[in-house]
Amino acid sequence: MARVKDVLDDDERKMKPLSFVLLLGATVLSGMIVYNAFAHQSGRARISGALPYGATTHMDVAVSADPNNTVVLKYDPLVEETQRELLASGIYQGMVDGVVGQRTKLAIQHYQQINGLPPTGEVSQDLVNHIKFTRKVEAAANFTGSVNPAAPPAGEVLNVKKVQVALAGLGYEIKTLDGHLNEETHAAILKFEMDKGLAMDGAVDNTLLSALNVSSN
């Protein structure tokens, strides 16, 4: 009996290292599974930032599997206004969400290139004003009336002529000083209003005359 007991004790001592190895292997395998699952989830960029109600956007961002990576989307009303103006101009075809993305930058660069501006792709108030000015000038150039308009009052003609003379004196491109609010004069008024930060309506009114230091009749 003593001999049998010694043999069993030896077998038990041999089994303990094997059990330890199996337990260690199972622990390592479980850890790898948990790590892979966590890395898969953290590989997705987290999107943060307060967007206004109704604003939506879609952006594909290539990031590493670092859980600390965060992509911040910042809403800017000036960006939204730029997107709307470019959309109305037929240059931008993306979403109007107030967030600068690759499509917005490319549209801005395209607009800047075709209008002889440095293609920075950056949003600014000057850019918005330039787009508005260009759109208004194009709208005025494309407008054709079906009937001949009635002759304006003599006082209005005089005011327009004063505006033409004043704008020409400031360096704005006006070749004909005839008192008629033609396309050339309208474009010069819009350019002046843009430069002075006035409402760009192209009208010969008291606001324009005051800005030009011209008395009305």
**Shape descriptor:** rod-shaped
Could you give the distance between the termini? 133 Å
Count helical runs: 7
Could you report the average pLDDT, rounded to the nearest whole number?
A: 74
Major sheet: 2 strands, parallel
- The tally of beta strands, per DSSP, is 2
Main β-sheet, spatial strand arrangement: 1-2
| Order of H and E elements | HEEHHHHHH
Give helix % range: 55-70%
Low-confidence stretches: 40-58, 144-148
Helix and strand arrangement:
Blueprint: H1 2-42, E1 46-48, E2 70-72, H2 77-89, H3 102-114, H4 125-142, H5 154-169, H6 183-196, H7 206-211
Parallel strand pairs: 1-2
Helix pairs in contact: 2-4, 4-6
Could you characterize the architecture of this molecule?
By secondary structure, the protein is an all-alpha fold. Among the domains are: 43-123, no CATH class; 154-211, no CATH class. 56% of the residues lie in helices and 3% in strands. A two-stranded parallel ribbon has the order 1-2. The longest helix is centred in the first third of the chain and has 41 residues, at 2-42. The model is unreliable at 40-58 and 144-148 (pLDDT under 50).
Write a compact overview of the structure shown.
It is built from 7 helices and 2 strands; from the N terminus they run αββαααααα. With 217 residues, it is mainly alpha-helical.
